[in-house]
Each structure stands twice: as structure tokens, then as C-alpha cells.
Write a structure and sequence with these properties.
The protein is 76% helix and 0% strand. The longest helix is centred in the middle third of the chain and has 16 residues, at 37-52. It contains seven helices and no strands. It has helices spanning 2-7, 10-21, 23-32, 37-52, 59-70, 73-81, 86-90. The radius of gyration is 21 Å and the shape is elongated. The protein has 92 residues and is mainly alpha-helical.
Amino acid sequence: MNNGENLGISEIIKVLKTFKNWKVEIANYHQYRFTNAVVEGKNNEIKALQRRSYFLRNRQSYEYRIYLECNNESEIKRAEANPKDKMALIFK
């Protein structure tokens, strides 16, 4: 990294600063291969659904659309059988 800083190119210095700031997180990713991509994807699906369902008046219908958007059919049927599982479905 010191060799890159010695070049004096501002873009390289910015990238090296980012690497230094995120050193632990980058190392953890390469060691464990764990990301929050699944959670980010579900969050994006829910936000898109919110934009499409802006004028829905029925809260239950809105929640059911979230379940449909974020889960497969077998998980939805299981949640219908046990209402306590409904919110757990979204973040599975």
C-alpha cells in the first residue's frame, strides 16, 4: 500500500484509503463469504411493492402481498397455518 501512496495519484490514494477503512470487513468477507445481500434483496422487493401499492387501504392485503413477494408458496401456506410465523417469513 505504501508503494501506491508514493505514486501520488489521487485516485489510487482514495482507493487505498477505502481499503484501509474497510480492511476488517473485506478480510471477513474473504474468510467467511457472508454478505447481507439476501436481506438487501428482500428490502428492495418490499420497497418496490410499497411504490406499487401506495393506495391500498386494507393493511392485511398489503401484508399478504409482502408475503407473496418475498416467499415461495409452501412457506406462505405454513404461515397461514401458524399466524405467529408470518413476520418471520419476510426475513427468512
